[in-house]
Amino acid sequence: MKKNDWKERLSVVYSTNPDFNYDIDSDSDEEQTTLEAAKQVLRVALDKKNRGGKVVTLITGFVGSEEDLKDLGKLLKTKCGVGGSAKDGEIIIQGDFKLKVVELLKKEGYIKTKPVG
Fold first, then answer.
1. Contacts 24+ apart (CB under 8 A), 65-73
2. Buried b / exposed e across 90-106, counting CB within 10 Å, b at 16+?
3. DSSP string, 46-93
4. By the 8 A CB rule, do 105 and 113 touch?
5. Can you give the pTM of this predicted structure?
């Protein structure tokens, strides 16, 4: 007898096919592996949208785990001496630190870092 737990298939409304197999995302807990620093293509830009007119430095393009993203964000915030956040594949540094962030990332081995704008 196949496993057919209703809680695992809540997203499926109805199927008339008696042989229908429900797709269960069993690997959704799997952590994304982080690319090494030299292969990362990071983009550094200034952003003011939806921030009350305040300027932030936005680093996008990070490919890897959320933990590694937070570690890189913490390093950049510490070196710049300001606050910020790291989530959803982007790092936000409060203030205009575009040139300093590009320089710091290249020192850390992110050689494909590009300033945008």
1. 65/31, 65/32, 65/33, 65/34, 68/34, 72/108
2. bbbbbbebbebbbebbe
3. EE-TTTTT--EEEEE---S-HHHHHHHHHHHHHHHT--EEEETTEEEE
4. yes
5. 0.71
User: pLDDT tens digits for 62-85?
Assistant: 999 999 999 999 999 999 999 999
CA dihedral 53, 55, 56, 57 (to 10 degrees): 140
Beta carbons of 44 and 102 less than 8 angstroms apart: yes
Q: Other CB atoms closer than 10 Å to residue 1's CB: what's the count? A: 3
Tokens of 43: 């983009």
Domain architecture of the chain: domains with CATH: 31-115 (3.30.780.10)
Tokens of 85: 């956040």
